[in-house]
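Hi L., both proteins are below.
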Amino acid sequence: MLFIVTNVVLTLMKTNKNLIYIAGPTGVGKTVFSLELAKKLKTEIISCDSRQFYKELVIGTCPPTKHQLKEIKHHFIHNKSIHDKYNVGLYEKDAIHKINNLFEKKEYLILVGGSGLYADSVIYGIDEFPEIPEKIRDEITMEYKDKGVSYIQEELKKLDREYYEIVDKKNHSRIIRALEIVKYTGRKFSSLRKHTKKKREFKTKVILLECPREVLYDKINRRVDMMISNGLEEEAFKLKKYSNLNTLNTVGYKEFFDYFKNKLSYDEAIDKIKQNTRNYAKRQMTWLKKYKNSKKINIEKKFEINLNKII
């Protein structure tokens, strides 16, 4: 009887395609966990890490290793150059096209990465915004670089108070994006945000990886040390002539750019990388609270126990 019931359940499950989103703060262990789950489910992985797209950013973004990429097929890893024009809107179109094609043969797919907005673009869809001329984007970016984040924060406060009240004020990219829209369209960014969910032909299940905060911070610190020993300084040095690119305004690179300009000592740069990564993890944990129906997994427990819970 148990065998019959199990087969019926499996048959019903296979009538729907399922996207499993492995979420969690940076450093918690999403890459290894998603790899083991993909092996169990005999499926492929869709990355939604907005910095692992770029082939020049190898050490500082901790992408899957060459061995891991051979073990399981990954999509959207090192598929772009830092010189390419790419954003969350373009990613949404590319990712949904790829996912729909893969679901013709697969019952399950795994989405993994720490870029919450990019994950949401796949799960819910994002609002459509006009294409912004590069001149406007460059002007606002230069203002940010010359005058700092507090200046663009005040600009947003004056031009769109509603969005200013809810935006992550430390996330300069989102503030710049909002200012671009306001200055190009003459309309408030908040007025263009419809929050309408797009219809998806698949179901999404969110698996949230967690561990005690002190454990996470220790993992982050040790991972930074490993990146340093693997040659992060040398990688950043090769890229310093492109430090004006938004894609390189990234933890691990921007601190070394300041070191090269004698704004920080070597030790201060390393400490800043660790501190900024921990702060980023904190912001991610705040963002992830919105997934109320997620399945929470303590990453400190044995892999097999956690994987069996999901399956």
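That was the first. Here is the second:
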Amino acid sequence: MKKLFFTLTLTLIPFYTFAYEGTISQSGSCGATDADCHYDLYEDGHLEISGTGKMSDFYYPTGNAAPWAPDDGPDIYDNPVKSVNINGVTSIGQWAFLWCNNLENVQISDSVKEVNTGAFEQSGNHIENIIIPSSVEKITGWAFTNSDTANIIIEGTPELIGNVFTNTRNAKIYCSSEIDCTNKGVYNDIDYQGTVIPYDKQSGVYLLDGQMYASPIDMANTQNACVDMDTCKAKVLKNKGYCSSDEACAAMVEAENANHPIEYKNKSYATIDDLLKGKHMPKRIYTIDEANRVAGTKNRVSIKYR
């Protein structure tokens, strides 16, 4: 019997990059040696960090404060940065946002692989969510020490080195069950007063206490749980821009459930998980026809092109 090859035509959402609108008050380099890292600090307190390579490491006692921080004196605890967008660089430098007491919003792109010592120490009192993307491979000690960030969400499975969450008093730490966020090497169990919430991730869907969520923010705001797995997968695909309508997203999930390949940008994917991971199928797809297996042999089978 001839098998059908299922294709799904999608309407794609265009990708645009928008420049931050405002008046720049200060600019300069913030990169380590051989890095091309640049910052723009706007008058309203927004900080844009972009470029390639690693950010510089900073620390006040050595006279090496971050360039967007006050030099010294009574203003050292009144850092002007209110929001930050980190894009393109591969690391967040040591103590880059130490004492950023006015910081309210942090966006970290999936270019970042390391969050270094003290990066957000004493800086999260007004932050609702910090999402550490799955690209991050390592978080080093004191990265969130004395931070009151409400939700710290670790999407991947980075190595946690030292007392990452020491005295993060009221924070909820969301982390995959594949890493041990309750390990005493991560935070001091006496100083730490927050709540660690382990979760599992399945085909882009977050699973927490028997509930399903399409994003870390939904997971932190537990009232946004999905009704069922299919609806949740469709929401994940729409959030990530793989489809522009609820109908198209639902069709992708239906294709997976029917064991049909999903076609996206002229490539075929066996499952939604493969699509999210970029694991497309080879151009020539073969299946073993068990009905035509040659009697009395172990390996000789009839191969049909699909």
